[in-house]
Amino acid sequence: MKNWILLLISGFLTAFGHAQQVPQYSQFLQNQYMVNPASTGVYDFMNVSLGGRLQWVGLENAPKTTYLYVSAPAAKWRNPSMNRTYGTIRRGNKRVRHPRARYGSLVHAFGGSFVADQYGPFRQLKMMGTYALHLPLNRDFNLSFGTSLGLSNRSFIPENAQVLSVLTNTGVFDQTYDAYAANQGAQNTMELEGGLYFHGKGGFFGVSATQLTKDYVQFGNRDFNFDPSMHLFVTGGMEFQVKRDLTITPAFLVKYVRPAPVSFEIMSQFEFQERYWAAVSYRHKDAIVANLGMYVSNQFKLGYSFDLPITPIRNYSAGSHELVLTLMLGRSSGGASF
Predict the structure, then answer these.
(1) Using alpha carbons only, how large is the chain's radius of gyration in Å?
(2) Is 163 helix (H, G, I), strand (E, B) or coil?
(3) Which residues contact 189 (CB under 8 A, 6 or more apart)?
(4) 171-173 and 64-73 as β-strands: parallel, antiparallel, unpaired?
(5) Is the pLDDT assigned to residue 12 strictly greater than 50?
(6) By CB distance 3.0 to 4.6 Å, which of 2, 8, 81, 101 could disulfide with 42?
(7) Given a cut of 50, is residue 168 above it in pLDDT?
(8) What is the pTM of this model?
(9) How far apart, in whole angstroms, are the C-alpha atoms of residue 201 and residue 62?
(10) Which CA distances in Å does 231 have to 9, 205, 212?
(11) Half-sphere exposure of 244 toward its Cβ, with a 13 Å CA cutoff?
(12) What is the pLDDT of residues 34-74, one digit of tens each?
């Protein structure tokens, strides 16, 4: 007797079991702490980002992610409203402008995150705390080390699973699926992430890894069929000011998780008047991504991205959408940095 689990489940197990055990982000250049804990606290203010992502809109039970990230230097945790002004920016200058990462000084930084990720019948809730140490190499460059530690809860939602059932005289059942679902339950695991981040005038480079504990430390049901794999991320970019009010930043993101092949994303971001930005990127064999955003004020920015699939899934999906709202608490009115 043949028992088939519907393509929806097998597809998600194959695609996400290795390729997307961690969420997909399209705005990594604007929010690098999403992929590298070592970038926590690069700005001299408290950064609070709330985001949501709907992937493959139009496809039933497609991935969706909600996340909250908070990061700040140690001093800002003690007094988030503390304002400073650096460089040539004078107090009272109300111009809205892009903040610059700080470097050239020793900094301790802390952060936290909460991520809710769901794809098909699988759901993950993750809460992390982050520490980063920024070491000055000279006046123009810093090297930082960061680590995140927390807990992750993974669960299976039978209501979101669809199967091809076998019709018999006694009813409808799927023996393979019934055996699979009977062994599912919530699993709590310890999460560990780490990274290095080099940044300074005109550029940055980072290396990070997630799910470093794999399934060695877990609590609760051990029958849950989930095998977390370590994910490696490499990011980099250079900033070029081509005109007074125009800056171009080419950047890249490389991702690897065994046994899936290496994937990469290349992008170019155009920033106008230090306030508005637009970017386009190519995600290898996956999507073309467009980003738009602006600094509404020196304490608030808004970013939106749209992913246009270039795989056969484009026949069933209207693309992916991501929206990120960011508060910059304690930032100086002039928007300057170190």
Answers:
(1) 22
(2) coil
(3) 151, 152, 154, 213, 215, 217, 218, 219, 228
(4) unpaired
(5) no
(6) 101
(7) yes
(8) 0.82
(9) 40
(10) 22, 17, 8
(11) 0
(12) 999 999 999 989 999 999 999 999 988 899 999 999 999 99
76 pLDDT more than 70 = yes
The token pair at 217 is 């430390």
CA–CA distance, 45 with 331 (Å, rounded to integer): 5
For residue 6, the model assigns a pLDDT of 37
Q: Could you give the CA distance from residue 14 to residue 322 in angstroms, rounded to a whole number?
A: 24
Nearest to 260 by CA among 229, 215, 237: 229
Helices marked H in 130-223 — which ranges?
Answer: 175-182
Q: Residue 196 pairs with which residues in a beta bridge?
A: 145, 207
- Residue 150 reports pLDDT greater than 60: yes
- Cβ-based neighbours of 210, under 8 Å, separated by 6 or more: 22, 191, 193, 230, 231, 233
Task: Quote the pLDDT of residue 186.
Answer: 73
Model confidence at 14, in pLDDT bands (50, 70, 90)? very low
Give me the pLDDT at residue 231, please.
Answer: 92
At position 86, the amino acid (one-letter code) is: Y
Q: What is the pLDDT of residues 100-131, one digit of tens each?
A: 777 788 999 999 999 999 988 888 999 999 99
Residue linked to tokens 């490389």: 254
Cα separation, 265 vs 333, whole angstroms: 34
What are the DSSP E strand ranges found in the chain? 46-54, 64-73, 107-119, 122-136, 141-156, 166-168, 171-173, 187-200, 203-210, 218-220, 231-238, 240-243, 246-257, 263-272, 276-283, 287-297, 300-309, 320-329
Task: Enumerate domains of the chain plus CATH numbers.
Answer: 7-329 (2.40.160.40)
Strands, DSSP E only, in 39-121? 46-54, 64-73, 107-119
Q: 68 by DSSP, 3-state: which? A: strand
Phi-psi region of 264 (alpha: psi -120 to 50; beta: other; left: phi over 0): beta
- What pLDDT, on the 0 to 100 scale, is given for residue 92? 45
pLDDT of 8? 35
